[in-house]
């Protein structure tokens, strides 16, 4: 993994921690599996996020995803091309 990828992972993690105070957070860079993909040409990476947060209790999946996207909004479409999200409440783990 290169320095840019390390920095992006750290920034994604920091943004999610700041906004959603997760009890569990895993962020993986899946960009290498998408090399040659049209979106990869722009420099944006592909990431997988598994996040467990009390803030997701009682919320529908679409609302949970919106909270995650809002947390990394400034990185979307420039640094993040694709974001796969698993968003759970603690009661669902």
TrEMBL record:
Signal peptide start and end residues: none
InterPro entries: BolA, BolA-like_sf
Pfam families xref list: BolA
Domain of life of the organism encoding this protein: Bacteria
Residue intervals passing through the bilayer: none
Similarity comment text for this entry: Belongs to the BolA/IbaG family.
Protein name as annotated: BolA/IbaG family iron-sulfur metabolism protein
Organism name: Duganella levis
């Amino acid at each position: 993994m290169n320095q840019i990828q390390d920095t992006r992972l750290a920034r994604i993690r920091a943004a999610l921690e700041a906004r959603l105070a997760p009890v569990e957070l895993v962020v993986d860079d899946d960009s290498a599996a998408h090399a040659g993909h049209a979106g990869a040409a722009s420099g944006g990476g592909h990431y997988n996020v598994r996040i467990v947060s009390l803030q997701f209790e009682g919320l529908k999946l679409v609302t949970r995803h919106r909270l995650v996207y809002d947390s990394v909004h400034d990185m979307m479409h420039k640094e993040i091309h694709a974001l796969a999200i698993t968003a759970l409440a603690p009661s669902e783990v």
